């Protein structure tokens, strides 16, 4: 019985890695268009059973973006006309 639970745990870790990899690709490819945002939203809803992984990864990504915008304030500012 213990061996079976270990295998299931290994599978869940593997699926979490696949999910995070997919989420990374989606975050890198998202743009500020309605279609892009709806696509990411739909994907999140379809994968809601993994909500804790999605939220954790999303927060990590937001913190990374916030740090980058603080490190490069000119990149965060809209271009002047």
Radius of gyration equals 17 Å
Q: Helix/strand-derived class?
A: mainly alpha
Poorly predicted residue ranges: 1-9
The proportion of strand residues reads under 5%
Number of strands: 0
What is the H/E string?
HHHH
Alpha-carbon distance between the two ends: 67 Å
Mean pLDDT: 78
So how many helices?
Answer: 4
Shape: globular
The percentage helix is over 70%
The biggest beta sheet reads:
none
Organism: Astyanax mexicanus (Blind cave fish)
InterPro entries: CID_dom, ENTH_VHS
GO molecular function: RNA polymerase II complex binding
Protein name: CID domain-containing protein
Could you describe the 3D structure shown?
One of its GO terms (molecular function) is RNA polymerase II complex binding. InterPro entries: CID_dom (IPR006569), ENTH_VHS (IPR008942). This is CID domain-containing protein. Residues 15-81 form the CID domain. The protein has helices at 2-29, 34-46, 51-71, 73-76. The protein has 81 residues and is an all-alpha fold. The chain has a domain at 29-71. It starts with a helix and ends in a 5-residue tail after the last helix.
Give a short synopsis of this structure.
The protein is mainly α.
What does the secondary structure layout of this molecule look like, with pairings?
Layout lengths: L1 H28 L4 H13 L4 H21 L1 H4 L5
Helix pairs in contact: 1-3
